Structure formats: C-alpha cells, structure tokens
Amino acid sequence: MGDERVDAMEIDGQQRQEVAAAVPDGFNADYLRIYYGKLFPYVDFFKWLAYGNDAKHPGCDQSYIGRRELSFTLENDIYLRFQSFDSAAELETSIKEKCPFKIDIGPVYSVDPAKRHAYAQSGNNVFVPVERELIFDIDISDYDDVRYCCSGADTCLDCWPLMTIVIKILDTSLRGDFGFNHILWVYSGRRGVHCWVCDSRARKLSNEQRSAIADYFRVYKGGENSLKKVSLTGPVLHPFLARSYTDVLKCFFEDKLLHSQQLFASEERCQKILELIPDENVASELHDKWQGNRRSSISKEDVNAARWEQLKTTLQSGKHKTQGLRRCVEEIVFSYTYPRLDMEVSKHMNHLLKAPFCIHPKTGRVCVPIDPNNCEDFDPMAVPTLSQLLGELNAAGMQIDSENDLERTSLEKYIRFFRTSFLQPMLKACKEELEAAYSAKLQQSKNTLSW
C-alpha cells in the first residue's frame, strides 16, 4: 500500500482485513473523523468536566457543565470560542460534525458562554469566569539553554527526563504541601506536559491565590539576557526546595544529565557553568584545572563527572565558605534541572489549555495521561499516533459500530488509566462533597424554620 492515501471507506472496514492494516503516517481530517467516530472517550470526558453535576441528585447544579467554555480550532485555523454543551451526546455530535483539529478547555463562567452577548447589556460583571482547574503548562523548548541533544519542539529520550522531573517535583508538592488529591498529568502531544489540579478547592481559587501558588514554585527567574537565572538566598533552603534537591534534583543531575547532555564536554559548555559562579577567581581557578584535564588521560565519558567533582570540591572547600558561594553548587543544579513553568497559564482563570485525548496535528500523537507514580517509564516516542490507531482498528477487522473498538487499540490502556486512577476517585469525592453540602443546606433550612 506504500504511501497511497487511504480512502476513508477502506478504513471503515469496507475492504478485506489483511489489506487494511497499514495506514500511511500523517494527520488529516479523514483520519480525525474516524478517531472521533470510534475512539474519543466522550462520556468519560464529559463526566470529568461535569464534576458530578450531571447526576440526578437534588444538590446538583444542572447549569454547571453548560457554563464551561470549550474552544475548537478547525482546519485552516478557523477558531471557534465559547462553545458550550449540556450533554455528552451534544458534545459528541458537535465534535463529529465539526472535526476540530484541536480542542481547548476554558473556565466555567457565571453564565452560558454561548449566550454571553445576551448578558452584555446588563453591566460588566455578569459574564465572568467563576471556576477553573489550577493548571500548569511546561514546554521542553524552555530548556534549550541546558540541553544539547535537541532544540525547539524536538525531544528525545536524553532530554525528555527533564519533563519527568517536573512531574515528580510538582506532583509531590501539590499533594504534600497543598493537600490536593485529584491531579491529572497529560502529555501535550509534542514537547511538554500539562497538569490539571481538579479538587474543588483548586477549582475555586481566585487569580491572586493561583498567582501565589505559581510563585511558590518559581525558582527559575530572569530574562534572556541575565546569565544567572537561579538565586537561592537566605541562610537555609526552603523545606520544599531542600526536599526537591535531595530527593530528586541532585541524583538526576549527577547520575543522568551530566552524561546524557555532556555538560562539561566542551570549552563552551564549561564556560556556561563557570558563568554561574559569582567569584571570578574561583571560576578562573577551575578553568585552569580543566585546561589541565584536557591534557591528562581523563576519558570523554569521565570528563563530565570528573569536572563536576572538581567544581564541588573547589566551591565547598574551607577557603570558599563565603555566603555567595555557599549555594553555588545547588544553584547550578537548579538552573539545569528545576521545573520551568509558564507562569501566566497558572495565574489566570481564563487561560485555555488543550484537552486530553486530542491529537497533536504536527506529530499525530494523542495527548494521553501520564501516571505520576511511574512517570520515568513514560516514553513520548511510544505514544499512539493517529495512523497507528487506525491501523490497529483495521488489523482487527473493523466491524461498523462495534462496541469494542477501543479495546483493540493501544489507546485503551491510557483511557483505562484515566478512568480508574483519576476519574472514578475524583467523582467519588465530588459526590461526597455534593451530598455533604446538600445535607448542610437542608439542616440550615430546618434550623431556620424551627427558630
């Protein structure tokens, strides 16, 4: 079959099974239509965004899901904002009909966003965002100054672990320091990860509170022109930073990054690290030592570890115990490994973020959930692609309208994880909160009556 374009009818199982298994790589509206027709998890997706308000319980807010903005980007960059849906069936019909190349999720507004113009006359504060998950967006392209294997949107297994570190650090702190439980990590489909904190407490945070949480995680600062982006001030590290350093960053830097990125393998790379040392005498002392190394018998593999050890020994020796140098080793490690967040995305309730289970148009990969407990096993190169999924459906001999399409594909394990590890525990908590709030309300009205 080679690179021929696959006819949509053929993919729908009209031809013999053995011919239909291979599907040319790529991303197009025909492929996408089949994905939305057979694999997109509409019911799970809708249940997530309804947060229990789609049930029959009298305490449910029936208007809740209909006030959520979904934005569609169609072929040729046609942009449809402020879509809203009252049921999973309505959402499914619209997606199948419009075949969006991208779906973004916005906030829950005070009124139905699709009807916002009707409220425009009645004053300023009628159409405002009132609820939104606490979100984080991290792109590996923001690490281009500390990775030497790839740049821009490209990733490989040498630099992807930088994203694994993001998940480990943020997930541990969001749960341990902030007490959040319902956190969804999603691969962006190309160059990064998205985090959705979905506890009701997180969804109700004001913009000021969101900013405070984002600032709590902010260590990497400074514009493109400032050489030193990390300054760890004060006599002791904040407990969160100390824990991040000892539990995750130090080992990752020394055991993996030094070697995978060959951080000391050239004059230019060494210079970059020396520029992070505030004392010129110490920097030049190290530079001379490393020049000497070049003439010694240190092998290419060992040069990174050897030079790092020399730097640590020099900076931590008795004669350099000045305040400015004391933190320098940690600052270098933080500069190269600590999460670099897109702060604006987290600070404001009205930011849109790409929905899980979309297909990335550049890579054809599905935006799948990542298990934070096993994030080091996640391989972005192994994520199912659109053409791979269609090939899997074909290989199974697609029966039209089959109930079990999903089970025949490599997407099934990701949707199962979403459902069992994230959605079900979260909906259980939503139900308990809803019932507790409803009981309290009933009790309050009883008390008022009895008075």
TrEMBL record:
Entry cofactors: Mg(2+); Mn(2+)
Family stated for the protein in its record: Belongs to the eukaryotic-type primase small subunit family.
The entry's keywords: DNA replication, DNA-directed RNA polymerase, Metal-binding, Nucleotidyltransferase, Primosome, Transcription, Transferase, Zinc
InterPro entries tied to this protein: DNA_primase_S, DNA_primase_ssu_euk/arc
UniProt name for this protein: DNA primase
EC id: 2.7.7.-
Organism from which the protein derives: Triticum aestivum (Wheat)
GO cellular component: alpha DNA polymerase:primase complex
GO BP, sorted A to Z: DNA replication, synthesis of primer
Zinc in keyword set: yes
Molecular function per GO: DNA-directed RNA polymerase activity; metal ion binding
